[in-house]
Amino acid sequence: MKLLVRSVQIVDKKSPFNGQIKDLLIEDGIIKEIGENLSAGSAEIIEAGKMYVSAGWLDMRVASRDPGFEHKEDLKSVRQAAAHGGFTEIVLLPNSQPVVHSKDTLNYIRQSGTDELVKLHVAGSVSRKAEGVDFTEMIDLHEAGAIAFTDGEHPVQNADLFLKTILYLQPMNALLMNRPEERQLTLYSQMHEGVTSTLIGMKGMPSLAEEMMLTRDLKLLEYALEKSMYKTDVPALHVSLVSAAESVELIREAKKKGLPVSCDIAAHQLAFHDTDLISFDTNLKVNPPFRSVADSDAIKTGLADGTIDAIVSDHSPHDEESKNVEFDHADFGITGLETVFSLAIMHSGLSVEDIVEKLTAAPRRILRLPESSIKEGIKANLTFFEPETEWDFSKSYSKSKNTPFLGKALTGKVRGVINNGKQEWYK
């Protein structure tokens, strides 16, 4: 591959060319030269026009359903959806069938195209079958390439298991990711607990369920680090899918105390509130649920002040039978890989540079991955996009179509991705 991209605006805080409009010459998968009026020679030429370029985006929370539920999503379709969403790397949750609690399942996923356009990172499960009872062989999984450890869609309810996992992972400098939810308080719940849930007769999930579990996790993290001889300058605990105002404040205070903790939010949390569920649209049934305007405002403040480190898709594909049913029987989840950037542009209030930071540098730092930047002589891992371009989300490349955004007009268009010497460009 020899490619010249002319007059593209660079968005990369780590690059000496940040904010500048430059030509990029890419040859054999390497950024060969960055400058102005570069000679094309035999290179393919792309005229950037309104395009920006950043380091390739990384999504920290994706459910692929493969192996076991390939009719919902397989590894090929999840890569296609990711690429169209601008992601060159994604982290897959362990909630497949079988669960990623052994090296065999981990290797099946990791070896399914290591040189593909979209790189797959795999999180190993904390407990066998992600049931929260017995530990997995985390050392073996770590040595086999597990990027982090989590029970994924299942919060770690057992406090002893959580504490020992933190201690167990410290010598390996490995990350624990957990979604805080006290499930005894959310049993049979369908949406956020509030005025709307009362009006439409749905059992609600109180914010308290998230706040209680997060308080426990942060206390146990602090206790574990007091007992451990190992110190870390990267997060030891990553809190997934923060949704409540009090949770944002708890993490803000934990960071002020110096606790090694990070967190993310799902992009779709920025677009809806609990009042939108009065339509009984099952595509709006997610967990954590869409909460109040006050919670949404707190999330936006947390994004702006750096309390919230990353934005993820929480891509959760489901087939028609799982969603086209009565609301209380529908599964939770949205397919989100293709809409993350648009939702962030439209609803976060962040600058383009700050959004890119939460899709690139922050996830890589949290996951202990090398920095990816736009500099001469390094591997081309790049995402091209137009922040102000409007587009119709008329076709999804996921096998599942459980998204409320399909058929809608959005702002912020991905134009192309380059990684592993491969490229794709979109109209």
UniProtKB/TrEMBL annotation:
Residues annotated as domain Dihydroorotase catalytic: 55-222
InterPro entries, A to Z: Amidohydro-rel, DHOase, DHOase/Allantoinase_Hydrolase, DHOase_cat, Metal-dep_hydrolase_composite, Metal_Hydrolase
Highest taxon, organism lineage: Bacteria
SUPFAM superfamilies, per the entry: Composite domain of metallo-dependent hydrolases, Metallo-dependent hydrolases
Record-level Gene Ontology MF annotations: allantoinase activity; dihydroorotase activity; metal ion binding
Keywords, comma-separated and alphabetical: Pyrimidine biosynthesis
The name this protein goes by in its record: Dihydroorotase
Source species of the chain: Dyadobacter flavalbus
